[in-house]
Fold Transposase IS4 family protein.
Amino acid sequence: MYVDSSKTTINGKTYQRHLFRESYREDGKVKNRTLGKISKCSEGEIAAIKLALKYKDNLAALLHIEDVELHEGLRVGVVYALKTLAERLGISKTLGNTRQGKLALWQIMARLIGQGSRLGAVRMAASYGACDVLELERFTEDDLYANLAWLTEHQERIEQQLFKHNSAGAGPELLLYDVTSSYLEGMENVLAAFGYNRDGKKGKKQIVIGLLCTADGDPVAVRVFAGNTGDKSTVAEQIRTVANTFGIEEVTMVGDKGMIKTPQAKELTDAGFYYITSLSKPEIRTLLKAEVLQMDFFDSELYEVENKTDGVRYVLRRNPVREAEMAKNRQERVKKIQRLVEEKNSYLAGSLKRDKDVAQRSLQKKISQYKLNDVLELTHQERVFTVTVNEEILKGVALLDGCYVIKTDVKKELLSTEQVHDRYKDLAKVEHAFRTFKQSHLEIRPVHVRTEASTRGNVFAVMLAYKIERQLSELWKKCECTVPEGIDELGAIRSTIVTLKGSSCQKIPQSKGLAAELLAAAGITLPSVIDAKNVDVVTRKKLAPKRK
């Protein structure tokens, strides 16, 4: 095998062609045949191929040729892999091929690879070859902050196009909705406020995030609210999102009992949507008192009651496992209070100077904390406390242990009893998304940005990163490898820079072991040669940092 190169001049213009050929004998004569054209290869690549063919029987000799230099290249493997998946999911096309679209794609990739700040994403781009792979010119952290604002400005368009890409030809939609919060570092974020804290971070302001997902848990829209926004107040915004952005008519919104109350259910109905939610224990007791429901209906099997007046359906069930857990938990809390009473009695008996009233307040506070005010009665005689269990009230409190009621206005011909139950249970998929957002490697918290546009853009970038995360998680199930582990493995794939007589090219070596298994499972093939432009990335301007 050899490379046949020739030049032809026509009308004063010189053309060069390169053919990959081989020699063979036929009837005692030497003949040649062309295996392929490689004229589109760069001069450096042609030179590398010729050199490899020259030393094909002794490749080790290449290491001793003075004209050849080998250098460790960039960690391009994971960037190519994520770029392929982003194209497959329609993210790349939706973001567009402009500079802003490419910067947004890199921010999404950076969130999956290493999280951190915008400055960290710029530094990461230099070592992962983001500019070469994505064909990006140099950028700074200021460019990435501005790009967050661009993401916010184009968010609804991007969500709409991605929704159409992923649900083309689909029928009526069922959408899952849930709300969480994420705490902030600092006090200057424009959306920051004290509210119901789900992160366990006392003294930290927060933002509230509402996430809309399809029935299989794929995120389609995310909205950011002020930190003191109640869960129920966010539903109207998501109704507007569905109605205006996605343009679908038959929608069933699934939300938990803290979110879709009577006013929100009415809003959904008025908008022409259906809803699936659950009832709180007080609401269940109200229906029992009105004899709409009966305790006999609660069983380990599903039971449905339909209110003919308003068409509302109630799906009932008692979960025996949950019932046993709740009874055990309550009994353990009662025992803890009883032990605490014994400890306080011993403490007071040690000295008359010890204040009985302080001990009583401490016990009463703990009883309230354990939500046992109705069940336990605390009395004292002189300096000795006694706690008594009111068995009658305890029986009433335990009556609904393990019981739950799902409420919906979806017609039976659209969803059966079992389907209504299963769709409500699908809310766990949104909860999984939030856990990945907040506790996994996507690491949305703590939020460091300050402006409204940057905050919304940051959360939206995380949502888009989660779409890729879900895809990788599904593809890599059989590899017994988590997404962070897989990304680290692919991040170890580096290119090799080959320089021959002043011409350079970047080659990606063939992967082996786990990396090869991960690429095969995801259906990804890495290129053998990178058309590198060797673009440098500026890590920081020599200016005072701006507030973002």
Notes: The first helix runs from residue 43 to 54. Residues 2-65 form one domain.
